[in-house]
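Need a sequence for this fold. Nothing fancy.
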C-alpha cells in the first residue's frame, strides 16, 4: 500500500513527489508555504518512507501508484511537483495521464537516461552500502551530492534505519531508468523547470533539455547556489515561482 498524506485545503490538488532516499516529509517547506492555496498530497515512492517494496519496479510503476492514490482520494485533475527522482515520476504522469495532469514542475531533475559513468559510480556506492553499511564517510558522500552544505543529521537517522538490501533495489531503479528525451514533445500541459546552480548530480543542461522540448514549458528558473534537492535546500527561492506557476496553471 502506497503511503501518502493528504494535507487538505480547498484549492486545486497538487501532488508532491520526493527525491531518492527521501520521503514526503522533505516537502515540509512547501506544505507550510503553499498549503493556504492548494490541496497538497505528499506520496512516499515505493521503498521510501512508509511505502513498502517487494521487488524490482520502474518509475512508470510509481506513476501508476500515484494515480491509484489520487483515485482513492477522489481527485481527478491535479498538478505534479517533483524533485530529482520525483521529477522523473511527474514527467511520466504527464505522459500516461495527460487528461488528468494540469501542470508539472520539475526541480533538479533530468529526462535523460543515467550517464553510464555516473551509473557505475552509484553502483559502487551501493556496493559499499551493502558491504559496510551506512558509514559516516558514505553518508557524507551522499549528502554532499544531494543537499550540499545543508544539515543532514535528521536525514542520516532515516538512512541508517533503511534496510540495507532495499538500497540496492532503489539504486537499480534510479540508474536503469529509461530516457524520455524523445517523448518530451508529447507532454501537453504547462511545465516549470527549476535547477540549482550548484547541483552536484545533474548539470543545468539537463534542465534546459526539458524546457526546450516540452511545448508549454517556461524558461528554466536557475537558483544560484542551489543544491540538488532544491525544494528542500532552497525553499525561499523555490516557493515564490512555484506558487506563481501553480496559481496560473493548477
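Here you go.
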Amino acid at each position: 500500500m502506497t503511503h501518502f498524506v493528504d494535507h487538505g485545503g480547498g484549492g486545486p490538488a497538487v501532488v508532491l513527489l520526493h527525491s531518492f532516499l527521501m520521503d514526503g516529509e522533505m516537502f515540509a517547506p512547501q506544505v507550510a508555504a503553499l498549503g493556504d492555496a492548494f490541496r497538497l498530497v505528499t506520496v512516499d515512492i515505493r521503498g521510501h518512507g512508509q511505502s513498502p517494496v517487494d521487488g524490482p519496479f520502474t518509475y512508470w510503476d510509481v506513476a501508476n501508484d500515484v494515480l491509484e492514490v489520487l483515485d482513492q482520494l477522489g481527485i481527478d485533475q491535479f498538478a505534479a511537483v517533483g524533485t530529482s527522482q520525483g521529477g522523473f515520476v511527474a514527467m511520466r504522469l504527464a505522459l500516461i495521464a495527460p487528461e488528468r495532469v494540469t501542470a508539472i514542475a520539475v526541480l533538479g531533475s533530468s529526462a535523460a537516461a543515467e550517464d553510464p559513468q555516473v551509473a557505475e559510480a552509484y553502483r559502487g556506492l551501493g556496493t559499499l552500502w551493502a558491504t559496510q553499511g551506512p558509514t559516516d564517510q558514505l553518508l557524507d558522500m551522499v549528502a554532499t551530492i544531494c543537499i550540499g552544505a545543508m544539515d543532514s543529521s535528521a536525514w542520516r537517522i532515516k538512512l541508517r534505519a533503511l534496510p540495507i538490501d532495499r538500497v540496492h533495489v532503489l539504486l537499480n531503479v534510479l540508474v536503469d531508468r529509461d530516457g524520455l528525451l524523445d517523448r518530451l514533445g508529447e507532454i501537453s500541459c504547462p511545465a516549470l523547470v527549476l535547477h540549482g546552480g550548484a547541483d552536484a548530480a545533474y548539470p543545468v543542461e539537463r534542465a534546459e533539455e526539458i524546457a526546450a522540448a516540452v511545448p508549454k514549458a517556461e524558461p528554466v528558473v536557475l537558483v544560484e547556489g542551489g543544491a540538488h534537492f532544491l525544494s528542500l535546500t532552497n525553499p525561499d527561492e523555490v516557493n515564490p515561482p512555484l506558487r506563481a506557476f501553480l496559481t496560473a496553471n493548477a
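For context: The chain has a mean pLDDT of 96.
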